From TrEMBL:
Superkingdom of this protein's organism: Bacteria
UniProt domain Hydantoinase/oxoprolinase N-terminal: residue ranges: 15-191
PANTHER family (alphabetical): 5-OXOPROLINASE RELATED, HYPOTHETICAL 5-OXOPROLINASE (EUROFUNG)-RELATED
Species for this entry: Nitratireductor rhodophyticola
Name of this protein: Hydantoinase/oxoprolinase family protein
Acetophenone carboxylase-like C-terminal domain segment(s): 527-682
Domain Hydantoinase A/oxoprolinase: start-end pairs: 212-500
């Protein structure tokens, strides 16, 4: 028991992930007294869009475990991600260096569409709320113009008069010397009625004023939203009897106390996809697979990411949408608008399109019976026999397959010259092509051959499409975890504590002060360890990862280079960069010298492992494959119907080998094994599909 925080970090842990359609929960109970080992409970309830806290509470209630007995709740939320993407942001003002108010609007002068001539862009902070004050540092941190303190006071009062809730203080070279930003924040705090004051250097001590300014503006504009949500959720949990602190997932795949999370709210953007990637890396590592492409298809979108050496790729170069760079470290996830609820339509050119519009949780797909009338991917899977209409979750008023077929025929088939079934088959092909493109972006687009990876499929809809995608991309194996539909929630349970730091140096390696490198990296490590010491849950051990963002002198783009430790000399830095450059581009340019731009440190508090074997129930297993058979039904594959066995996955013998075509049904998802593929199970209950092995 951690007496300081009043939290039981031990026996009953609940991971909760809020998605666009469903809120997923996994609860692992390791209390003594059970002869069966850890007890696992899962819940999947509709996401309550009006207040996500209600969906979280509903999921906890569904487990039938009293909230007072839960020692720790770890929560992944889409609150900040949705706020950013939907531009439902708090009114925010900015105080910046005189002459530079338009930096966050000018950006990099790129275009929303690479080959388009038009496009729109709305800055996070509108121009009338960006005020200037006199101050100036040079790039070395020397004071050129003293801070106009009276000007700061006047600007703060003006922004308050205009109804601003949050404040950003963003000065030109504060990464080199933050003294002016710190003093301006002190002055603002005397007047500002709340603690929603963000200084650019505190969140991102990095050059490139556009990216730093946008990141700070996003942080300030989502702080009140996240804090309100955390307060609502805390109140709801207290009403259930859970009166302790809880942890919140960050976009970097680590966790932070709910008491501190709003301080750096921008770091929670993309926390939902990050938790799934962390669970995938953890699960695959236990199975002896270190290189994988994660494929998470939910109700609204599909997220893909690359994992090499059992470590997810983390980047601080992510642009959530056009001109919206959030340069805090995040798991490098690529998202496309193709989920179970993605809507299909025939456009004005007579072409079939799928997504990005989604039916969401309300009204949802047609088959949910909540009033949805637009054809979706889930409806197509139902119509083609891949989903069982009698086993869909959260169906209010069942809709017959014939009714779904009639809608497909009317809305799609009539315009394409196809039957309803053929239109559904075409829809799945289009969706698969779109998702395969996302996988190419994170693999081939970054110099990696998909054939060298396994495809890790999860989410409520991922295992339905994974085998087809693997065949399209030449990926030899597909892994489907024991609980695919709640993998993101599992990621909350297995994720570690993590803090990331960035510091701009921007010096040619040839003239670099290596003592400065050591000093910066050691300071970052010490700060991270101090932050972890404040957390409610203490890890088993602390790991530290150092990297450098480097480029050739005169180059624009950066390459992240792993460092062996804080003590590194110039020759080693040059060699490490050249090796990383060659690995990415297969070119060596030894005549050009390297430039060290940023030093990065990730301090990771590693938590105790969870035994994934506890996710399967050996008592429910049967002796033979035949005993696990639920039924046989017609399923559409490659333009034709196949008589296909449908198995209850939770009953499958762990040594079963299944020749495709076959369907595996379970509470949280359905797995499709295509004709010519072969599937087998491992000790943790993962299904391993070998593509083309049965041909």
């Amino acid at each position: 028991m951690n007496e300081k925080k009043g939290i039981n970090s031990g026996s009953v842990v609940a991971g909760i992930d809020v998605g666009g359609t469903f809120t997923d929960l996994i609860l692992i109970d390791t209390r003594e007294g059970s002869d069966m080992g850890p007890r696992v409970r899962v819940a999947k309830t509709p996401t309550t869009i009006e207040n996500q806290a209600f969906g979280v509470v509903n999921a906890i209630r569904e487990t039938e475990v009293p909230a007072s007995e839960i020692g720790l709740i770890v929560h992944g939320t889409t609150t900040t991600t949705n706020a950013v993407l939907e531009r439902q942001l708090a009114r925010t003002g900015m105080i910046t260096t005189a002459g530079f108010r338009d930096i966050i609007e000018l950006g990099r002068r790129t275009r929303p569409q690479a080959y388009g001539m038009t496009g729109t862009f709305i800055p996070v902070v509108p121009r009338n709320l960006r005020l200037e004050v006199d101050e100036r540092m040079d790039a070395a941190g020397n004071v050129l113009t003293p801070l106009d303190e009276d000007g700061v006071r006047a600007a703060v009062k003006a922004l308050l008069d205009q109804g601003c809730v949050s404040l950003v203080i963003h000065f030109l070279h504060a990464y080199a010397n933050p003294a002016h930003e710190k003093r301006a924040a002190e002055i603002a705090a005397e007047i500002w009625p709340n603690n929603y004051i963000t200084t650019g250097h505190a969140l991102l001590s990095e050059a490139r004023e556009f990216e730093r300014g946008v990141t700070a503006a996003v942080n300030a504009s989502v702080q009140p939203i996240l804090e309100r949500y955390i307060a609502r959720l805390s109140n709801e949990l207290q009403g259930l009897g859970y009166a302790r602190d809880f942890l919140v997932m960050n976009g970097n795949g680590g966790m932070i106390s709910a008491a501190h999370v709003a301080r750096e709210a921008a770091k929670t953007v993309m926390s939902g996809p990050a938790s799934g990637v962390m669970a995938a890396a953890f699960t695959a590592r236990r199975a002896g697979v270190d290189n994988l492409i994660t494929y998470d298809m939910g109700g609204t979108s599909t997220d893909v990411a690359l994992v090499r050496g059992a470590r997810p790729a983390v980047s601080n170069e992510i642009e959530v949408e056009y001109a919206m760079p959030i340069h805090v470290p995040m798991v490098d996830v690529h998202t496309v608008g193709a989920g179970g609820g993605s809507i299909a339509r025939v456009n004005d050119a007579g072409l079939l399109e799928v997504g990005p519009q989604s039916a969401g949780a309300k009204p949802g797909p047609i088959c949910y019976g909540r009033g949805g009338m637009e054809p979706t991917i889930s409806d197509a899977n139902l119509l083609l026999g891949r989903l069982n209409s009698k086993k869909l979750l959260s169906v209010d008023n069942p809709v017959s397959v014939s009714d779904v077929e009639a809608i497909f025929a009317k809305r799609l088939g009539s315009r394409l010259g196809l039957s309803g079934v053929e239109a559904a088959g075409a829809m799945l092909q289009i969706a698969n092509i779109k998702m395969a493109g996302a996988i190419r972006m994170v693999s081939l687009g970054k110099g990696h051959d998909p054939r060298d990876f396994a495809l890790f499929a999860f989410g409520g809809a991922g295992p339905l499409h994974a085998a087809a995608l693997a065949r399209e991309l030449g990926i030899p194996r597909v892994m489907v975890p024991a609980r695919p539909g709640i993998t993101n929630a599992l990621g909350c349970v297995v994720a570690d504590l993590r803090h990331d730091f960035v510091r701009t140096v921007n010096r040619p390696v040839a003239s670099l002060d290596v003592a400065l490198v050591k000093s910066v990296l050691e300071e970052q490590r010490a700060e991270g360890e101090a932050l972890i010491a404040e957390e409610t849950v203490q890890p088993e051990r602390i790991e530290c990862v150092h990297t450098a963002d480097m480029q050739f002198v005169g180059q624009t783009h950066l390459i992240n280079v792993p460092l062996p430790g804080p003590e590194v000399d110039r020759d080693t830095l040059q060699t490490l960069f050249e090796d990383a450059y060659y690995k990415r581009f297969k070119v060596r340019l030894p005549e050009i010298r390297a430039n060290l731009v940023n030093l990065n440190t990730s301090v990771i508090g590693v938590r105790a492992d969870i035994d994934l074997a506890s996710l399967i129930d050996p008592a429910g297993r049967v002796a033979t494959l035949a005993e696990a058979l639920n039924e046989r039904r017609r399923v559409w594959f490659s333009g034709d119907w196949h008589d296909t066995p449908v198995y209850a996955r939770e009953k499958l013998p762990l040594d079963a080998v299944i020749e495709g075509p076959a369907i595996l049904e379970q509470l949280d998802t359905t797995t499709v094994i295509e004709p010519g593929d072969r599937a087998a199970s491992d000790a943790d209950g993962n299904i391993i599909i070998t593509v083309g092995a049965g041909r």
